[in-house]
Design goal:
By secondary structure, the protein is mostly helical. Helices cover 74% and strands 6% of the residues. 28% of the residues are buried.
């Protein structure tokens, strides 16, 4: 991952994880929307290039992302109203996230299929990390595993937290806890990357 991309992924993590309730079910729904938006953005960019409407690219891609998000929310209202109600305007955050903007608006001359494959493979790594955080918050914070289901959020109770650990574990499911988790992961990544870069520089000097 390039140095500049850590800021895009950091912004996306803050938008997609921190303000959203710490339930794995909501993470799954947002991850699915995220992939749909990536595909929509790539398709629109290539369509704009074919039609030679480069001057309108930003507007057309933005409108397409918002439109597919609205359509997704309407389907979610039919499939799982409680999830649509809980997420509310949070469901529009992926469309505004830095990763969507960076992937959809970035200039490239790759063929459509290769472009889709490259972007989806890259975003799957981010989504895997995102879902891992949601899963961790759900299990540790609530002692449950939640999944989206028709007209409800299916809840599997894994364990009951002890009274002396309830507050500490529940903190991880809050907005503050999510912010701490994301900050620790990003800080850890930066520290590890700097160490590897230092080792590489020492190897080149020898």
């Amino acid at each position: 991952m390039k140095d500049k991309n850590i800021y895009f992924y950091g912004a996306a993590a803050l938008a997609l994880i921190v303000p959203v309730p710490g339930r794995f079910a909501f993470g799954v729904l947002l991850a699915l929307l995220f992939v749909i938006q990536i595909v929509t953005g790539v398709l629109m960019c290539h369509l704009v290039a074919i039609l030679k409407l480069d001057d309108l690219k930003n507007v057309l891609v933005s409108v397409a992302l918002i439109a597919v998000t609205v359509f997704y929310k309407q389907l979610l209202i039919l499939f799982c109203p409680i999830a649509a109600f809980t997420l509310g305007f949070l469901i529009f955050l992926p469309a505004l996230s830095a990763v969507i903007i960076e992937f959809s608006f970035k200039e490239n001359d790759m063929p459509l299929i290769e472009d889709l494959r490259e972007k989806v493979m890259r975003i799957l790594v981010f989504i895997s990390c995102m879902l891992g955080i949601y899963l961790f918050r759900d299990i540790v914070g609530f002692g449950t595993l939640t999944l989206p289901a028709f007209n409800k959020i299916a809840t599997i109770h894994l364990f009951s937290a002890k009274p002396d650990t309830t507050y500490a574990s529940s903190f991880l499911a809050t907005i503050s806890g999510a912010f701490v988790i994301v900050a620790v992961i990003l800080a850890g990544y930066i520290i590890v990357k700097k160490q590897f870069d230092r080792i590489e520089r020492q190897g080149d000097m020898q």
